[in-house]
Amino acid sequence: MSDPKAEGTAAEAAPAASAPAANPFAALGGAGTAAAFGTSGGGFAFGGGGIQPAFGAPAKAEGEGEDGGEDDAPATEEECQAEFKPLVQLEEVETSTGEEEEDCLFECKTKLYRFDQDSGEWKERGIGAAKLLQHKENKKVRMLMRQEKTLKIRANHLVMPGTKLEQHAGSDKAWVWSAVDFAAGEQKIEMFCLRFGTPEKAAAFETKFKECMDINQKILGEVATASKAKDEAAGDELAKDVEEKAAVKDKEQEDA
To answer: Where are the beta strands (DSSP E) in 11-152?
Structure first.
């Protein structure tokens, strides 16, 4: 059996629950009330009433160009047509290394050492390409080694016949020899040590170096023979001239 008092209480509470709740923001959009967020219409309007966006000009809708139309293609960047003339005109200068008139018979990257007589120690001269170069006209062969990057000459001498190549401390990757070198601009007797990366490269250098000695032997031999013949001819001519002068002097004495 239901309690009449409880039923009355529930009936009184039902109308209250079905009634719409009061809108706490209704007064913000009512007539005669200033808009709280920049517009006179209802609701929330951000950016109205002269308020600028946080990052510059008002944002445009996607695809809308400056004229309000569709932006079908991206704007092309104009190429700069300005020309700048240098203040100083530099002429191209051709440089000569002296190797233009030579053929390379051998070339290999090596490390060069020079024996210092004062300290009694080997001094490193640099790393670079060791070359055997033959002149195109006189056919003489020289040994040339330039330091890499700086291209400074570290060894420059004629491959003289009879030069003795010796292994350095029994190593099959290094050769030692002496030569009259001209790398410093003046002739100087130097002892060099050339170290290669592999025994095969060292053996190839030995073979080609000996071939170059034979080439220079033939050339220098011909030059020495020609020089000797020239000296003998000059001596004979001088002796003949002295003999003629002596004969003239003897004749003058007889006439006197």
So the answer is: 102-116, 121-135, 141-147
